[in-house]
Each structure stands twice: as structure tokens, then as C-alpha cells.
Amino acid sequence: MPLVLYKGEGEKLLNYTKYELKTTEELSPFLDGSDNIFVFACKKCFKEFESVDEPDCEEFVKILEDHGKNVTGSLKVDFLCNKTQTQKLLELPEGTDSVFVVSCGLGVQTIADSVSVPVFAAANSLNFRGHHGMALTNKSCDACAQCYLNITGGICPVVDCSKSLLNGQCGGAKNGKCEIDPSRDCAWEKIEQRLAKQGRLKEFLDQPVQIRDYSKVNYKAISEFVKAARESRFDGYYGGVHPSERKEASEGIPLVRFPEPDTVVIPMSMHSGAPANPIVNVGDEVKIGQKIGEAAAFISGNVHSSVSGTVIAVEKKPHPTRSGGVLSVVIKNNKKNEIDDAVRPYGDIDSLDPEQIVSIVKECGIVGMGGAGFPTSVKLAPNKPIDAVLLNGCECEPMLTADHRVLLEYADDVIYGLRAMMKAVSAPRGIIVIEDNKPDAIELLQAKVESIDGIEVVGVRTKYPQGAEKMLIKRILGKQVPSGGLPADVGAVVCNVSTSKAVSDAIRTGMPLTERVVTVTGEMVKNPGNFIVKVGTSVKELIDYCGGIISGDVTLKAGGPMMGTELTDTDVPVIKTTNGIIAVGRDHFETVSCIKCGRCVDVCPMELKPLYFAKYHDEGNWKGMLDMNLRDCIECRSCEYICSSKIPIVAKIKAGKSAIVEMSKK
User: Fold this and answer.
1) What does the domain layout of the chain look like in residue ranges?
2) pLDDT for the residue 237
3) How far apart are CA 85 and CA 95, in angstroms?
4) Could you count the other beta carbons within 10 Å of the beta carbon of residue 57?
5) Which site among 250, 397, 429, 541 is 20 to 30 Å from 598 CA-CA?
């Protein structure tokens, strides 16, 4: 049944209620053996937010009290069928002898699988059938509107039994498997085992014969696609999306060195943390690799000149990712390519101790080049034991191919940088992680590391945001970074492959981070390509070199389509974290009200509930956002990508984070 948002022009959004409470007459037989009852209620899905709570839970509690029952507690849960999140809440008060669930059949089955006491359905499913995307299990509901879960221990005989038998097994099961489908357990053997464990088997056998009323709604088709999607949801880590990759425009184009710019604008803030302090003045002559900005704090980064020439300004200039301008050093290039005397090789890995490696990385201003820009020297001084250094070669953002080309054309440098970082943190393992849409890079790197002890290459199934460090750690090491924690808390350091190459350059040549690989691509770019670009080069020059932008309504971003920052002005520089410039056709859509479909919860890799971030933002409820663990959001935009209502969730999340920071200052 397709999801219809509107009944007609100007009419109210439909309320997609999936169930209704059973009548008192239907419920009475199941209340007789229960005295101390806990109630779970699903907040329902596919409906607009309302200012009042759903009444079903309160109505049912009143029914219990009218029957003289003791209600040990009740809990309303978003998307009860999401077992991953629901199981975190399953702590029944002592003395509870049964649980009643106000939800569709999926919620009842989820709870019945998770607690040891008898579980009963308090509602009948009406217009929902099959597998809800939120379930993430093999459970399904046939919307038969006569729920048998109360007499079968929460295992549905209609959907779990291949023959939909209502009164016991057929006798054809072999070794607990169905004779029709040997891959499936016999539902009735499971039912009898559960009822026997709960002491309810005799009660079931004394029941009158059940007859299916086929005059009520019945749907039996289950989509194979939905099955596959559900099974893949937990592959590596929870959630994630599969946006169109669109890498073919540039992935096969070798790196080209971009022509020398006449002028560079080098911001003092190209990293996380405090901006660097400029240490040059107007009129000073500088050389390539010369330090022009001094790190201002522990979390900060040195800044170096990418050209030789004359400083012509030290002033605020437009920045690709920060509004309002950033203090920058503007240098007129003399095209002499003079190298600063301080740029000299530091030796090799064997001759350097860990502290020296960290010092070199810090002095050379190396930061995370995957987008976040966190100072690498800070990562390499965790003060905790590190089991593994992970190199992120996933490049999971659609369209971008810069890291792919670095892997193919600078494989030895990437490996050298990894070895140096392993030594810096005394890690016995180094793992280069590459998504399987780059088979040439996987094959090349595997051949390169075959004879190197402690280093391996792991190919992983392509899924966004695989490259986010917390996702990578969970996928490769099977460890969960705690809320508010860092990779070092679970014995890991994660760096980008381009960062690793920069570490290699720093040690072997002494050259600081003054250039990087940038992909210029998108359907609105005439001549896409991958370029080695000096930091401070104008984005406009880069675009013009590629033939300019095809006329039309264009969205221009620094970075990828998912996490990139939209550019309203091309008069901004390439910085240390600029891995791509993309130009695509602008999307035109209308934002409508949230229908609580739960798709954003389904795909959030941090296991958050993004729909509430949008709701609380609109209410100005910053504490509510904080209580929903807003700070754990990595702003990957999976929720916004999947949102049926086209709500700008990430913009609301960023505003919420800023408001929380201001709130903490008061």
C-alpha cells in the first residue's frame, strides 16, 4: 500500500494509525492470570507530531485499574519494533508477572522476544502488514485484525508458520525446521517451547479451536527487497544509506598538478580548534614551506606558505566553510618556487622515536584531510594504549575521487605514513580500509603490504558514512566508541589516507602541508578532474581551469554532496581540508510536516532519533535536543537524505549545537 501524504489539495495530512485497542471483552480472558502488569506502548508511526500524547496507553492503564490490576509501570517508546533501541529500555520493575503491549504486531513480537514473562497484545493491527523498515528483524505482521499473539506466547502463527496453522504443528517438521522451507524454524515448536517455559502450555491446549476469519484484512506478500535491506542494515554498523556514487566522471582521471596561482590566500584557520597566529607582516618575503602562522593552542595547527613571494595583506578574507571571514595571509607568488631553508628531511622511521614523529607532524601543520581538520599531532599523543591505527581509504562521499587517486598514485607514501603513525602511538596493527567500489586500489595496496608485518588491507562493502571514524572502528574492530568519547578510548587512532601521505612527505622531505589533492566534478562542471593544488589557490581559478560551470541553476559545494559546505561565492581559497569542489543542479522541493515515518531513525549510524532534533529545534527546546544526545551527531546528513518531508534536519542540528554552547556559557 503506497504512502499517500495528502488526501487532496488543502486537506490535512493523513494520520497513519496502525492499530486500535482491543475491546474490554477481548482483553478480559488474558487479564485473569495477571496481577502485576507493566505496559509498553508504541508512539505510532507515519503520522504528524501532535501536541498531546497518544491516548491509547492511558486508556489501557485505566482498563487495567478497572479490573483491579496493579500497574507496575508504563513506558511509551518511539518505534517499538526497533529492537536495537527498544532493548536498551527493557528493565521491568521487580514483581512484574506479565507485560501488555499497545502496538501493532511487530512491537508485541519484539517485546515477547526480549523478556521472560508472558507478553500480551492490547491492540489489533488494522492496516499495516509485512515488515516495517524500523523492525530490523525477521518479524512481520499480517494485519489480520485478530491478533493470535496472546495465546501463542508472542510468536505469530500466521506469518511465522509457512502454512499459517492456528492450532499446532502439522507433524512435518524435521530437526526443528519446516518441511516447506527448511531454512525456517518450525513456528509451532518455538511456540510450544516458549509456552512450556512460561507454564502456559496446558492453558493453550485447553483453548477452543481457532478459526481464521478471512473476511478481515489479509495480505501475504513480503518483498524480497525489504528482506535484503533489513538484513544489510547491520552489516558493519547500524544504519547508513546508499546514495548514488556518481564517481565515474573523475575516478579514472590521473592526478594533474594545477598551474601556479598568481596569488594565494592562506587562512589562519584550516583546522579544528584555535586559529593560528600570523607571524609575518605585509612586505615580508616568504618561501615555500616557511611557517607563516603559529599554532595558538594545544588543539590548533601551524600554517605554512605554499608559494614563494611577497606578503601583500594580513586581513580577514572569505573562507569556504566559515561565515564572516577569517584572518588570512595573502601572498603574491613570484613563481621562483624557492624552498625555505627549514624544509629538509628528518631521517627515516627507524631513526626517529615516537616523540620526534609527533613533533614533526605538529611542526609541519598536518591535520585531518578528510574534512574535519583535527590536528594529527593531537591524535598521535593519546596518552592511552593504542591497538590499531586505521587508515580511512573509504572515500564514502559520493562523487569525490581524490583519496582514490592518492591510493593509486602514492601507495608507497601512504604506507610509509601509516608505519610512522603506528610507531608514534606504539600500535602493533595498521589497517588500511578501502570500500569495495575501488577494487584497483584494494588489489594494489594488498600487494604492497603483503610482506609488511602488522599492516593489512581490508575491503569493505560500500555504505555511507563508512568513513566516519566511529563507524570505521565499529566495522573493523567491532568496538563502540562511548557517547562523548574518542577513538583512543577504545584503543584506536583513525586518519585519512591523504593525511598519511602528508606525514610521509613531512618525514622524508621536511615539506609541511602546503598542497593537497582536490576533485573537481559534478554534472555542471565541463571538464572534471583530480588536481594537486597549492593551499590558498582560488576556487574560482580551479573551476575556470575546468572549463567553468554549465549555465543553469547550480549548487556549488566545497566537499562532497552529503557533508560538503555550500559555496555562495567562489572567491574563497582551497584549504587543507578541501577534498573536492562539486557543481550539481540545484534541487527544488517543498518542505512538509514530519510524518513520524521513522526513516531517519532507521538510517542514523549513531543510533539517534533525528526527527526529535528537528521538532525540538522548532520549539526552541535546546535542553530536549541535549537530552536526545545531540552532541553525538556526526552531521553525516543520512537523516536529511532519506527524509520524506525534505526537512533540513542538519541545519537544525547545527543551530541546536550552537544554542547549547551558548546555553552552557550562562
Assistant:
1) 19-232, 352-509, 599-665
2) 80
3) 24
4) 20
5) 397
